[in-house]
Write a structure and sequence with these properties.
- This protein has a single domain, classed as NADH Oxidase, CATH 3.40.109.
- Helices cover about 50% and strands about 5% of the residues.
- The protein has 6 helices and 2 strands.
- A two-stranded antiparallel sheet has the order 1-2.
């Protein structure tokens, strides 16, 4: 196997993409290549996440990059099972002749991701700490947006997914996350 670390100038990767172009051109990538991703590049996109605003500058996030094939396969199985239950009504609706073609493509692309998630070389989770028993989505989602923009800038495909949360405790255990 080739060393993915040797192929990328991490310090310069993504530094030349103009901000507004990155915002305009970042989209959910659901057909991902299985190529190895250098850990330094994973760290770089996570670092971009840390520059997101958060109330009181609490930065209530933690990043977990899953690269182990067995753990990715287990996570992908949980995701796929939850996703198929979630997407069933949309799949049925997409069969109607008057269903918009663009939406049909989106449904099929999302289904492809669910069925091939185990092939992605990295599953990057951005988890958040609770405060007074409440999730801090208002802080987590700007962080995730920064990560997605950074992935776009450095040439990595990425897609925000949340269906795995229906298996919250099991996923958290697989990731080694604390209870809060």
């Amino acid at each position: 196997m080739n060393d993915p670390e040797a192929k990328v100038d991490v310090d310069r990767a993504g530094e030349d993409l103009p901000l507004l172009e990155g915002i305009r051109t970042t989209r959910a990538m659901r057909r991902l290549r299985p190529d190895p991703v250098p850990m330094a590049l994973i760290r770089k996109v996570c670092e971009a996440g840390t520059f997101a605003p958060s109330g009181g500058n609490r930065q209530p996030w933690i990043f977990v990059a899953v690269t182990d094939a067995d753990r990715r396969a287990r996570i992908a199985t949980l995701y796929r099972d939850a996703f198929h239950a979630y997407i069933a009504p949309a799949l049925e609706a997409a069969e109607a002749p008057d269903f918009p073609a663009a939406k049909r493509r989106n449904v099929r692309a999302a289904l492809h991701l669910a069925d091939h998630l185990h092939e992605a070389p990295v599953h990057l989770f951005v988890a958040g700490y609770t405060r007074r028993g409440a999730e801090q989505a208002q802080a987590i989602f700007p962080c995730i947006q920064n990560v997605l923009l950074a992935c776009r800038a450095v040439g990595l495909g990425a897609s925000l997914t949340t269906v795995h949360r229906s298996h919250g405790a099991e996923i958290d255990a697989l990731l080694g996350l604390p209870e809060n």
